[in-house]
């Protein structure tokens, strides 16, 4: 009961934070920060449940995870894709994101269905950490290394090549010329 009391508080707080962070510091920073927050909250939720810490912490942690996760996801899917895709591709990019989310969710569900009957109940938390943590860490690394900031872009001028590295033009010169 106490867990359910603080779940919406954590969820609302972290969702609210993601909006302010996005407008103040940019989309890329928001996605990285909220993914890190989701990772920390999820670890806290699992540990709190496994070690029977206070139910208030358990509820707040899972709410914080959900708010952080959806805050990062909405920033990617709802804002960043729109700001970084040319007008004629925006819907396609958003649909591809939804498709990938569905495929990954289905894959995690199948893995859970296979593992739950064969692993001891005490290992459930570790199993869910194993399903969640690699994706969050991978998303953080990809965002950090390969994605450009979209805050402040003029949507009418987006071509999709704003972050492409300039191609090096090789000047072929022959000896003696």
TrEMBL record:
Residues 1-177 form the Major facilitator superfamily (MFS) profile domain. Pfam families: MFS_1 (PF07690). Keywords: Membrane, Transmembrane, Transmembrane helix, Transport. It comes from the Bacteria. It is a multi-pass membrane protein. One of its GO terms (cellular component) is plasma membrane. One of its GO terms (molecular function) is hexose transmembrane transporter activity. The chain crosses the membrane at residues 6-22, 29-47, 53-72, 93-119, 125-147. It is found in: Cell membrane. This is MFS transporter. It comes from Agathobacter rectalis.
């Amino acid at each position: 009961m106490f867990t359910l009391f603080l779940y919406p508080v954590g969820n609302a707080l972290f969702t609210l934070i993601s909006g302010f962070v996005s407008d103040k510091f940019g989309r890329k920073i928001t996605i990285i920060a909220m993914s890190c927050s989701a990772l920390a909250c999820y670890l806290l939720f699992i540990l709190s449940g496994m070690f029977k810490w206070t139910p208030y912490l358990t509820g707040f942690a899972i709410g914080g995870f959900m708010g952080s996760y959806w805050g990062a996801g909405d920033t990617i899917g709802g804002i960043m894709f729109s700001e970084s895709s040319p007008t004629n591709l925006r819907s396609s990019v958003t649909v591809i994101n939804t498709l990938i989310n569905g495929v990954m969710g289905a894959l995690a569900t199948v893995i859970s269905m296979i593992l739950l009957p064969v692993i001891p109940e005490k290992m459930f938390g570790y199993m869910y950490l194993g399903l969640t943590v690699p994706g969050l860490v991978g998303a953080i690394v990809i965002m950090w290394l390969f994605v450009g900031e979209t805050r402040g872009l003029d949507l009418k001028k987006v071509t999709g090549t704003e972050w492409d590295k300039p191609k090096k033009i090789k000047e072929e010169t022959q000896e003696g010329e």
